[in-house]
Every structure is written in C-alpha cells, then in structure tokens.
Amino acid sequence: MSRIPASLRTEALEQILTERGLVDPGVMDKFIANYETNVGPLNGAKVVAKAWTDPDYRERLLADGTAAIKELGFSGPQGEHIVVVENTAATHNVTVCTLCSCYPWPVLGLPPSWYKDPAYRARVVREPRTVLREMGLDLGADVEIVVRDSSSEVRWLVLPERPAGTEGLSEDELVPLITRDALVGVAKVAAP
Amino acid sequence: MDAIADIGGADGWGAVRTPDRGEPPFTEPWEGRAFALTLLGMGRVSGQNLDAFRYALGRLDHAAYFDDGYYGRWLNAVELMLTESAIIAPGAVDARARNLQGEHVEEPAAPEPHKPDYAPTAAGSLREVPDPPRFAPGDRVRALPVPDGPTKLPRYVSGHTGVVESVQPAHLLPDTHAIFQGENPQHVFTVRFDSRELHGADAEPFALTIELFDSYLEPVS
What is the pTM of this model? Predict the structure, then answer.
C-alpha cells in the first residue's frame, strides 16, 4: 500500500477534528498568519540593531536576554528563557537542536529547512568548522567555535559582530543587514 | 529511547542544505495547517503536553519521522497522540484521506476519549526548585548513561566529562512530564565539553555546550 501524502492526511485530520468541534479552522488561520507575518527574524534583527547602537541595552541583553527582548515587545512560545551570546573576532557561537529543532520563535520565527535538516543536526556538533565552510562561512583557525545544543527550554540567540564600515548607520539602517543566518551563527553580518 | 531523533554526531547524513534567505515559514499551505493542528492537538485536544509531543516524535518509525518532512513528522506525532488519547480511532486519518482522494472506504467510529490524568501546575516549563543547585560554574561533571523512556540526554554526550558553564532556571523534567508521571522540576546546567572529549583526539578543535538536567549528571572529582 503506497504512503498517503502528508498534505492529504493533514486535510483529513483537520476535517475530522473540525466536524467534531475539536478545532476551529479560524483559530488555525490566526496561528498561521501570526507566524507568516508577525513572528520572524526581523524581530531578532531589531534586537541586534538596538544592541549595536545602545550600549546599555547591549549590557542588559547579554545579562538577561529574555527580559531585554521583552522590552521590544517580543515574547511567547519557545521564548521562555532566551540566552544571548556575543560573537567576536576571537569567538564564534553557532546554535543547533540535535534532538528536535528547538529555536527561539519570538525573535527568529519558525526554523528554516536547513536548521531542521538531519544533516545540520547531526554534523554541526561533530565538525562545525567543516559545516560552516559548506554553508559559506570560512572561519580562521584562530577563531574558537562554541556550538550551543538547545536540549532544554533554554533558547540561544547569537549577537553577531557589527561589521566594519557601518559606524555611520542608524539603528533602522542596520536592521535590514542582519540576517536569520547570522542570528543562528552560520553567517556573519556583511556591511552594505 | 527517542533513538530515531537522537542523531547528534551521527555519520551518513551528507551535505548540509544551503540557506535561502527568502524561505517562507511554510513552503506549502498544508505545512501551516499541520503546524496549527499540532499546536492545538498536543494540548487542549489530546490533553497531553509539549514533552509528550517530543516523545511521540521519538517513537515514530523511520518513514514517519523522515519521509514526510518536518511538518509531516509533526502531523504523524500529533496523530499518534490523538490516537493514544482515544480522540480519534487508529486508521481514521488514513481512511478519511483515501476518501478525499476518491476511494470509498469505511471510516472507523470515534472512540470514547481517554485523556491522560494530567494537568500542568503552571504555564510553561520553568519552575521553582527550593533546594540549591548541586553544581556551580567550574564544577566537573559527567553525563550518565541514556535512560530508557523519554529523555533529553543525547547519546553523544553520555559518558563524557565536561565543566558547568552556567546554572539555568529550573525546568520540569521531560523524562516524567512526557508520560504524565509528574513535573519533578530540577535544576538545569549548561555544561561545556571539549570536542576531543566527545569525539576523540582527531576531532576538529571546538567547544560544545548543552543543557543537562540534574539527574543526568554525576560529579567528577
């Protein structure tokens, strides 16, 4: 017997639960729209741009990530306790969840396919330098790599290094430079 | 247990995928539906919880875990939870799906629901623990063998020695919470390992940290 596509089985389960009044498709629509429009890596980019331009905020962010992120209005599921770690010229943090795909939803939204892929989950805790090079980030041999495996409800957010040449940019001008990949630690932020 | 999900450090997965900056949260509409069904199904509909969902993921067979993609895996896990709470009958989803594609198969009747005897003591997963933490930053600890049943202790750190980097807020224990045997909150420690301790002398040099619950650890003098 051939396997029934997941798309059709999803429709089947939604029908069964809706007919019995156990789920409301309108509630489902709202969940989906929220993650399609409000909760995404733009939130994390705003946090980082503020940290780059406001030294007091940066200090608060590194001391208590959850509270500092909440100052900007970002909180919710998968964000109960967010720890922010700073990448520097000497130390590069990169995050993963080997057991599932835990990810700080309030600041990054839902995880991208490469983060959920078994190859990333399996390999970044064994050969991160090689994995990062495959993803386009070639770190010098003198840079210490720290891999952060999110195995509990603690979620990690990387504060990337502010690129040289952006000293004159405002917080709002910095936001679009800051990518999801840099906030996970598989890329650096590039100057425009 | 959870062996199918416990892939950290495993060989044979090939190249990583190249990031696509413009990738949307859901690449096809059904993925969003499966996402929303899972959020609703794991809690209020099945009467279970997030750790039970992760345990259900870990109990899927190879095809159900890997072949339907990420949100297909979620769908398969929430179907398992809904079946185990007797909200839906075994085979009900497949029967309906076959009818949706034009077949005429009989669908099983809805069973009498049998939700677990479970209610959270508070929202979320963080809890207060009255006793002070057993370890402090700088202490050397060893990760114990992976227990039977649900756990968040992966094989690749089990048996290895690291150093406590920081003490995190206490959490309810997934090992018992996932099977409705109590929240049993414990202190959680971020433990730092050297790559050569984990993977041998020839490993790339790097450090790795992971959050480990108190009962996953023993002191190393």
Answer: 0.97
